[in-house]
Amino acid sequence: MRIEQEMIRVQNLKKSFGSQEVLKDVNLTVKKGEVAVLIGASGSGKSTLIRCINFLEIKDGGEVFIEGKSIDPKKDDLTQVRQKVGMVFQHFNLFPHKTVLENIMEAPLVVRKPNKEELKREAIELLKKVGLEEKADVYPASLSGGQKQRVAIARSLAMKPEIMLFDEPTSALDPELVGEVLETMKQLAKEGMTMIIVTHEMGFAKDVADYVAFMNQGRIIELAPPHEIFNNPKEERTREFLNRVL
């Protein structure tokens, strides 16, 4: 019997901003190769949860385990943790003064310091993967939003992460550009990348998620495979939300 490796476990996670409790005892486990999709209304805690997993926000209580190790932000090297856990945001944050290729090579050059020619080859392979090899030498200003987001995904993959976190990666895009970014993410899922994705794209969640977590007021109130969540939600609050968005 194959024992599946646990990649991320969040245990009793708490986070407040001032007097506002944003995460209340959140528990979530994601195993190797699984795709977990977080859905819920704005302000339900989805983005804060994945920012806590990547230590862009520091939890107030509970634990975050990466590959079985409990991470202590005061003692552990968070740069090393972030090499394992890549993150793609709503906004692309590409360096405007660097070409697409230079954007992808920047972080590995600083952190991994590998052979530059080898890194360039890897970066070109990543551009092929996201369907943008012909854009290697252009600057971000000449790209569409969807292309910028695909470059941002390639840039994250350049660090060779074992886990990818996506925080509403299509919400800043024009509707006709959403599909190309989702296609890239579907391909990653097919290749077995472990992912946690915050999204409002319900059709995408149905297609790629191993399970869907519905968040409400800082808690995960329902966690189930997509066919159960979308066809037969158990919680009244989940039903209300899905009736509104579907």
Structural features, described:
With 246 residues, the chain is of the alpha/beta class. 38% of the residues lie in helices and 26% in strands. It has a six-stranded mixed beta sheet, sandwiched between helices. The protein has a four-stranded antiparallel beta sheet with strand order 2-1-4-5, with helices on one face. Strand 4 (61-66) and strand 5 form a beta hairpin. Helix 3 packs across helix 4 and helix 4 crosses helix 5 (145-157). The N and C termini lie far apart (39 Å).
Topology at a glance:
Layout: E1 6-17, E2 20-31, E3 35-39, H1 46-53, E4 61-66, E5 69-70, H2 78-84, E6 85-88, H3 100-111, H4 116-129, H5 145-157, E7 163-167, H6 175-190, E8 194-198, H7 202-208, E9 211-216, E10 219-224, H8 226-231, H9 236-245
Parallel strand pairs: 3-8, 3-9, 6-7, 7-8
Antiparallel strand pairs: 1-2, 1-4, 4-5, 9-10
Helical stretch tally? 9
SS-based structural class?
alpha/beta
Mean pLDDT: 93
Uncertain stretches: none
Question: How helical, in percent, are the residues?
Answer: 25-40%
Order of helices and strands: EEEHEEHEHHHEHEHEEHH
- Beta-strand content estimate: 25-35%
Radius of gyration: 18 Å
GO molecular function, one term: ATP binding
Membrane topology: Peripheral membrane protein
Main location: membrane
Domain ABC transporter: 8-242
